Amino acid sequence: MADTATNPVSLKRAGNFLARQGILVAFVIFMVGFALANDRFLDMDNVLGVIRSSTILGVMALGVTFVVISGNLDLSVGSMMSFATIVVLDLHDKIGPELAIPLMFVMTMSLGALIGFLVGYLKLNSLIVTLGMLSAIHGLTLTYSGGKNIDIADKEGTWFSILGQGSALGIPIPILIFLGLAALLSILLTKMPFGRKVYAVGGNGTAATFSGIRRARTVFCCYLISSFCVATAGLIQASRSMGSQNTVGQGMELEVLAAIILGGASLMGGSGTVFKTVIGVLILGFIQNGLLLIGLEFYVQYIVTWIIIILAVWLDIAAKRGRLWSPIA
Amino acid sequence: MTERIPALRLENIVKTFPGVRALNGVSFEVMPGEVHALLGENGAGKSTLMKVLGGVHQPDEGRIYVEESPAVMTNPLEAKSQGVVFIHQELSLAEEMTAAENIYLGELPRKSFGRVDWPRLRADAGAILDRLNCGFGPDQIVGELSIAKQQMVEIARALTVDAKAVIFDEPTASLTDAEKEVLFDVIRDLRTQGVGIVYISHRMEEIFRISDRISVLRDGTYRGTLITEETDEEAVTKLMIGRSLDLSRHVPEGALGGVALEVQGLSCGHLFEDVSFKVHAGEVVGFYGLVGAGRTEIAETLFGLRSPSAGQILLNGEPVRIHSPVDAISHGISLVPESRKEQGLVLGMNCRDNMTLPQVDDLTAGPFVSEGAEIAVFDQYRDRLQIKTPSWRQQVKNLSGGNQQKIVIGKWLSMRPDVLIVDEPTRGVDVGSKSEIHNLIRELAGQGYAVIVISSEMPEVLHVSDRVVAMYHGRITRTFTAAEVNEDNLVQAISGLGGGQVA
Q1: Looking at the domain B257-332+419-425+449-503, which fold is it?
Q2: Is B365 on the interface with A (CB under 8 A)?
Q3: Phi/psi zone of residue B304: left (φ > 0), alpha (ψ -120 to 50 degrees), beta?
């Protein structure tokens, strides 16, 4: 009797666990599959390479995670990253890296502040605002650079390249920046009052207001954090390449969102963590790398990535409502 | 003359929900060409009865007859096809479309290849609109119409079938006085055309103007039917609320403290005007009135969610300006809001985080939230309010309504306010938690809190209040002491019938 009663329950529990961790499970299956298909996949060099090439995306995704948890979107991060890269490269030769870096942060974060003001205080729809900013910032970058590529003239005579190319204790600096920032932001989100407010605002903005939380200020700060991360990503990008086109971050806003969704955050707001986003970034990186290693054309990746995201989102909502399809919600 | 048979008849309807007998053998009928009013307090079973009629719920026992032939309703569309149609309080119209399209939405007349038969659509819709004397044509864009006229479209939609009975559920809730007259004309026209009309409302005055008979429900039981011409408000009121109250009346004892909150001539546009009252420390003041009387809006203004257009708020004798909930909280005002799911709780958050949300900035150790301090607050109020949850980690969406409400109350109580405003403290809460919450409110007053209770349930207001403020149309019509107030004079004061008695 006891057996027949507990079996379905424990089966259901196992099912629930799989559904909840569906993305991690899929990740493991992918990893095993790729590892069997190509023995270079799990080489230390390859693994470090993937993590390293994911850092710029990862750093951006950390900031956007705050925006998404607060119940908003940020589609402007790709062109904002281009802006940051171009600005810091240009200023490097004009005023030197010591001044160029802080000035670039101020300029990039003013753009974040503007978005935060429009979405937080004026309560405009974040999709519209940041979609508009995507295009406006692109225009701003082109105006700033005159449409030309920007290169650092004396690539050997500056310490600037350390940030993107150096390493400490055998670990590449960009990875250290990524992990350090992830740790800091994770503490901010989970251990400090501000983080609690971000979850409350995204989970139920009205209830947050009724609880005396300054909703507009909270949203504003999320965009500020997002732009700080974008500036950091731009810095790494500039330092790694020492020269750049105006379109270096183009399309990254969607990859960032994809990583966050793969990590399991809800675009409705109120859920997600820094750790989950890091996992999402790594999943995306390893999948793209794996596809490349098994010999898939680079362009095909865009399509496969999209399919993976759709599957992830579907699995996610299916897990929430307990079945694969339902007529409502 | 042929023998008249009821347009709609309900016979001995029983409906039980887990733990509640919502309908206990209710019978009800409406004759063709009759306006039959259905009255009852909130929770008396009116809406359950209507849901049974509309096929949303299936009755456990009893039958429904349309023109004396048995009918089984499984959804509102089926009810409609059998001639039973509903006009709800909330309109559900596509505002960008024309009246004709709205009237036949989902059943547009078709020609070959599924093309819409526009001439027929216009002609049919036009005929119905004429029948209602609407004063606008089938091509009118609905969004450009007043609320009352939009309601006409809703009624027209109901008349696309051969309606035997039309049920109006609180139809005047959002109408102005002039618009009401238009609606009443339509109802009278329908009556002349031989349609049976069920009219559900709280408003005595309307019921006496429009109805032929009045039936009363109380606690899910049918209490009787009165012929409107032969009765008066008092008799109806008695039938409606003269229950054996398990809620004993509150008798004030002990001295009150000083005036904690004083409101002078407070107005907020047309939502409420020239409102003045005082609340003493240790006192519970109940606000009673119909939905839309302005009670919740006063609470929201005191809590900084609305800006007053005139008037003054004094706390402990000091005039204060409250521009936001942050201000209100810092002045020691707490608000347990009307809708706990929309305004009170972040449903996906755990119990502890919900409870400590307003003070998360203060429960810190250095820059970090102190989990220990949070858990201490949660444990204290879990024990005090007897909140039943396996752990503070439980997401509040998994708790029962009563326990959710206690989380919200605990959240605001833990702020140790001077003034506690509770809006609908027991809405959607089970009976056990209800009396616990009532006891708690009295207990808080005993400890010197100044408490404002807003409620649509008269027994609740009478049970917990030291004084009762009656509101009608955004104004305070009368303030009663617990000794003065009774069901009759309170119902009068909130229906605008009290006539110039201002305290």
Answers
A1: Rossmann fold (3.40.50)
A2: no
A3: left
Asked if B99 and B138 touch (Cβ cutoff 8 Å), the reply is yes
Q: What is the DSSP letter of B357?
A: G
Reply yes or no on whether the pLDDT at A66 is more than 90: yes
Q: What is the mean pLDDT of chain A?
A: 87
pLDDT at position A1 is 40
Q: How many domains does chain A have?
A: 1
Residue bearing the bigger pLDDT, B401 or B481: B481
Residue A21 included in any domain: no
* Single-letter residue type at B462: L
Distance CA B461, CA B440 (A): 14
Query: What is the token pair recorded at B163?
Result: 């309606």
Q: What whole-number percentage of chain B has pLDDT above 90?
A: 36
Confirm if A320 and A314 have CB atoms less than 8 A apart: no
Residues of A in contact with B328 (CB under 8 A): 212
pLDDT higher than threshold 80 for residue B42: no
- Residue A266, domain extent: 29-320
pLDDT of B240 over the 80 cut: no
Tell me if residue A194 falls in helix, strand or coil.
helix
Q: What is the interface pTM, i.e. ipTM, of the complex?
A: 0.84
Is position A8 within any domain?
no
Q: Is B264 on the interface with A (CB under 8 A)?
A: no
Nearest by CB: A207 against B328, B344, B367: B344
| CATH number, domain containing residue A209 | 1.10.3470
Neighbours of B196 (CB within 10 A): 27
Q: Does domain B8-241 have CATH number 3.40.50.300?
A: yes
Does residue A20 fall inside a structural domain? no
